[in-house]
TrEMBL record:
Protein name per UniProt: Thiamine-monophosphate kinase
Keyword hit for Cell division: no
Chain residues that bind substrate: H13, E213, W256
Chain sites annotated for binding Mg(2+) 3: D35, D169
BP GO annotations: thiamine biosynthetic process; thiamine diphosphate biosynthetic process
Species this protein is from: Actinoallomurus iriomotensis
Every PurM-like N-terminal domain range: 1-99
InterPro entries, per the entry: PurM-like_C_dom, PurM-like_C_sf, PurM-like_N, PurM-like_N_sf, ThiL-like
Length: 260
């Protein structure tokens, strides 16, 4: 089995004036379920820790739980239990469990010669955050991408069958997260900037390379793998010092840092 955990803090990971409780619940579940799938496992259960101020409306909590339930149902997982405490702000801690049918997919399996491919949206959630920060609510599709990520669970679950050598979900930014695969595998990942899919906005490349919380899957596959249409090749792994380049150069700063 595999296990993963994430903590969401009000004002840091979500805002109640930006997102309804149902969407916050789906987001809290999705980011953990995506982590399970990224390890090559089938999600089975969630354990939820919830801290809320005492004046919180019960209907708000019920809608939050409905969102977590419905997101879990997407992969036939269930909420198995948890705990609730009094807190000065809303805090949601989710632990997800998953069952393995074989060895786990880790970040350490990429080999020189592998192709790097992504499946799912990149940069859409960050584009939505930047719209909301400017007081905008349109385009609605980008705002919704921040409120409720849509990990491509089915495609992710098939990655092992396709021969994936390493995989993760993009939560902190594509360049930053692929850096974890590069470091763990001891390879250099070379991306083609034009091949990376982004949102329909002028600054699409920056958002696609550094925006997080879409929970797309990024994986490495043997070069000869025939990938289905939902997987888009964006680069390759080569021998060399560990790191990530875009069009032959280090991209620079970008991605999510909890302490900045």
């Amino acid at each position: 089995m595999v296990a993963t955990t994430d903590v969401l803090v009000e004002g840091r990971h979500f805002r109640r004036d930006w997102s309804p409780p149902y969407d916050i619940g789906r987001k809290a579940a999705a980011q953990n379920l995506a982590d399970v799938v990224a390890m090559g496992a089938r999600p089975t259960a969630l354990l939820v820790g919830l801290g809320v101020p005492p004046e919180t409306d019960v209907a708000w909590v019920e809608a939050l739980c409905d969102g977590m339930r419905d997101e879990s149902a997407e992969v036939e997982a269930s909420i198995a239990g948890g705990d609730i405490v009094r807190s000065d702000t809303v805090l949601i801690s989710v632990t997800a469990l998953g069952a393995l049918d074989g060895p786990p997919l880790t970040r350490a399996g990429a080999r020189p010669g592998d192709v790097v491919a992504v499946c799912g949206r990149l940069g859409h959630a960050q584009a939505g955050v930047e719209l909301l920060e400017r007081g905008l609510r349109e385009p609605a599709g980008l705002v919704d991408a921040h409120r409720r990520p849509r990990p491509p669970y089915t495609a992710g679950l098939r990655a092992r069958e396709l021969g994936a050598t390493a995989m993760l979900d993009v939560s902190d930014g594509l360049v930053q997260d692929l850096g974890h695969i590069a470091d763990a595998s001891g390879v250099r990942i070379e991306l083609s900037g034009d091949a990376v899919p982004g949102p329909p906005v002028p600054d699409a490349r920056r958002l696609a390379l550094t925006g997080g919380e879409d929970h797309a899957f990024a994986a490495t596959f043997p070069q000869e793998t025939a990938l289905p249409a939902e997987w888009q090749v964006i680069g390759r792994a080569v021998a060399g010092p560990a790191g990530v380049t875009v069009d032959g150069r280090p991209y620079g700063a970008g991605g999510w840092d909890h302490f900045l």
